[in-house]
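Exam revision sheet. Question 4 asks you to relate a sequence to its structure. Input first:
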Amino acid sequence: MAMSKKELNNLIDKLSDKDVPLVADLVKRLIHPADFYIPYDDEPLTEDDIQAIKEGREEFLKGETINLEDIIHDLQN
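Answer key, structure tokens:
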């Protein structure tokens, strides 16, 4: 479905103030993607990295990690 710039502007005008920064960031990234380029991390994993990954996975499987939704709830309240 094609949308005119006028229709897009009308939608933007209906955004809540708290959503404006998020949408503005998205539009900026669409217009100038090179400004937001994050290079791929191509460094090899160290033994410490591998051990930390294993420990994190074990903690996750045991249910010892913090749920992302709980973190978001705590930050917003």
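Marking note for examiners. The two ends are 38 Å apart (CA to CA).
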